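Example 3.2
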Amino acid sequence: MFHHTRQTLTHSLALNLRRLRYGRPRAKVFCVGFQKTGTTSLQYALSLMGYRVAGIMNANRHDTPEALHTEALRLLPQFDAFADNPWPLYFREFDAMFPEAKFILTTRDPDKWYESVCKHFGDSGSKMRAWVYGAATPRGNQQAYVDTLVTHQKAVRAHFADRPDDLMEFDVSAGHGWPELCSFLDRPMPRRKFPKLNTAVMRH
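Structure, written as tokens:
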């Protein structure tokens, strides 16, 4: 649903109806937490609020991280919100490009996060994870994965340390939902229950 493919007519109609209800997004939203930290739930929540969301990109279409970065920049005008790899990696650049943007750092206990990553991906490797973590396969590479996660989170917090209005930390496992998200984005609160999606059967 959130991959950067063209929208079907059904998706376009749904998006337009949500924008009639909630208004058009006033600023871009960048979800800068790593995958398996509640990013899928957040993507769906944003889509329900009328944002057109770009999700994970297919790294296999690109020979280098630089080529992936170029493609990400090309896609920026087409979407209102961005989540999952590789979007978190470019948070400093996006902050400079879009001064009015909002940034959401999804968080999760690092050890539980690593267990979830291993359960989700198993022994499968990917070019994207090799670029992000320095190891394509999570199993057997706990130190590399956890260190990368923690280092990234510290970098995000440091970057926005004196700008609390621009960054929100969001922990779905701790019960964060519509009140926190809608208050941060200054958007009306949907009446439906906040989505908590189980993506254990999905493979990115």
